[in-house]
């Protein structure tokens, strides 16, 4: 490495790639943690395709296939190349990073849930958001491993994506679950809101 060039912090590259993939695929944390190098293939345009073998709610043996956007594909490959795991098919995609800024060994076991939750904690910290009081269910009303799925569902709802499509993207089987996540986004689409807005514009 030439003098004056700072090596990117591997943890930062991994965290960015993880969040991009989490948001772009709507996969659950447990599903993301089990992804391996061998699960990656390339589309004709160069974007990454992920073969998700064991999603929670899909029972067929073939699993599901998730395509990444150009930006998410770039982020993921940036991390994979920096970590040096591209040549090991059995390596998990998102592996621990030593404080020496190195991947000390090719990991074949998924990272623990607390370690994955730390990714969201660091992201929240860098965004300047402080921890909030606990909700009535004992969870912090802030970012967590579920945030990407919920956020992606809400963003799709705001863009007018149908409930059926949102359920397919997130492999949800219960309409009530999706409606609970997107209720804030859907509230502004109510008939009375439209009526009042139209009346005000007259």
Describe the structure.
There is one protein chain. This protein has 202 residues and is mainly alpha-helical. It has 2 domains: 7-130, hpI Integrase, Chain A (Orthogonal Bundle); 146-188. 46% of the residues lie in helices and 6% in strands. The protein is built from 8 helices and 3 strands, in the order H-H-E-E-E-H-H-H-H-H-H. The protein has helices at residues 10-25, 29-33, 70-83, 113-126, 147-158, 163-170, 175-187, 191-201; strands at residues 40-42, 48-52, 64-67. The chain has a 3-stranded antiparallel β-sheet with strand order 1-2-3. Helix 5 packs across helix 7 (175-187). It starts with 9 loop residues before the first helix and ends with a helix.
Core attributes:
202 residues, hpI Integrase, Chain A
Largest sheet: 3 strands, antiparallel
Written as H for each helix and E for each strand, in order along the chain, the element string is HHEEEHHHHHH
Oligomer: single chain
* Form type: globular
The computed structural class is: mainly alpha
pLDDT under 50 segments (min length 5)?
none
- How far apart the termini lie comes to 66 Å
CATH class of the largest domain: Mainly Alpha
Assign a percent range to the helix content.
40-55%
Count of discrete domains: 2
Number of E-state strands: 3
CATH homologous superfamily designation of the largest domain: Intergrase catalytic core
Query: Mind telling me the C-alpha Rg?
Result: 19 Å
Question: Strand arrangement, largest sheet?
Answer: 1-2-3
CATH architecture of the largest domain: Orthogonal Bundle
**Beta-strand content estimate:** 5-15%
Under CATH, the topology of the largest domain can be stated as hpI Integrase, Chain A
Tally of helical runs: 8
């Amino acid at each position: 490495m030439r003098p004056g060039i700072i090596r990117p912090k591997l943890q930062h590259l991994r965290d960015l790639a993880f969040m991009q993939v989490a948001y772009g695929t709507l996969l659950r944390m447990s599903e993301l943690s089990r992804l391996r190098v061998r699960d990656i293939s390339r589309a004709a345009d160069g974007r990454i395709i992920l073969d998700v073998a064991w999603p929670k709610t899909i029972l067929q043996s073939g699993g599901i296939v998730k395509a990444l956007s150009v930006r998410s594909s770039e982020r993921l490959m940036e991390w994979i190349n920096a970590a040096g795991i591209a040549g090991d098919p059995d390596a998990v995609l998102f592996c621990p990073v030593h404080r020496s800024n190195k991947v000390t060994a090719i990991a074949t076991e998924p990272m623990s849930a607390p370690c994955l939750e730390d990714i969201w904690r660091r992201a929240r910290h860098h965004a300047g958001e402080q921890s909030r009081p606990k909700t009535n269910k004992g969870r912090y009303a802030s970012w967590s491993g579920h945030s990407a799925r919920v956020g992606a569902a809400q963003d799709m709802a705001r863009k007018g994506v149908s409930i059926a499509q949102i359920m397919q993207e997130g492999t949800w089987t219960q309409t009530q679950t999706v409606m609970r996540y997107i209720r804030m986004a859907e509230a502004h689409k109510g008939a009375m809101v439209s009526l009042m807005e139209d009346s005000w514009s007259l």
